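Section handout 9: paired folding examples.
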Amino acid sequence: MSFAAHHHWPDALDLATTCLLLGGILALTLSGHVLFVLDVRAWLRTFRRALIVVTDHLPNFPRWVRLQTPRCLAAMGLKLPCNEEQLMRTYRQKVKQLHPDCGGDRKRFMRLQANFEEALQFIRNQVRDGKLRC
């Protein structure tokens, strides 16, 4: 009798090897899909940031965009048309509430700073381009 006559397939070693190989292929495929989704999400965040930068530098906005209050001004509690003096007055009031030395939250204060800088730049650009009057 030969060895092949007594050998039954699949034995435990063959079954374990086959399961490990198929499991590895499945795990590799799933990890590829997960990494792809994470990479696409990161790309979309980067793309959104790029769109924000581009729209901040476009010279001519459509009429419907000009009618909406920019997010940075809305966060400060202002609406268009407003001027730099109104922005500064609102900013000083909010700083007194949100500054960490006065018991405010650091994250909210940093968000206020970012909104203020963006709103100030927006108002100055609008005044420079003649779209807002001082």
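Moving on to protein 2 of 2.
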Amino acid sequence: MKGPRHSEEQIIAILKQGEAGLATGELCRQHGISAQTYYRWKAKYAGMESAEVKKLRQLEDENRKLKLLEPAGLRAAVSYAEMEYEMSERHACRLVGLA
């Protein structure tokens, strides 16, 4: 899989050119992107500034890390929920997202 060709800062700059009135077809031709890519970027980054994009990237990374908890971490979370909230193992597993 290819890595991203454009940084988020470059994407923001391209979208600002589009907001300034440059035609979508011309904008896509200049930057070598498809119209689909342009509209996908517009849906994700419209109205954002560079600082907001950095915060978004940090939140996405943090969310990705939280989703990748190891099974041992999940078991620890189940044990904690059982002890702290005095709930059954079945309910604690459902709460954590285990089968």
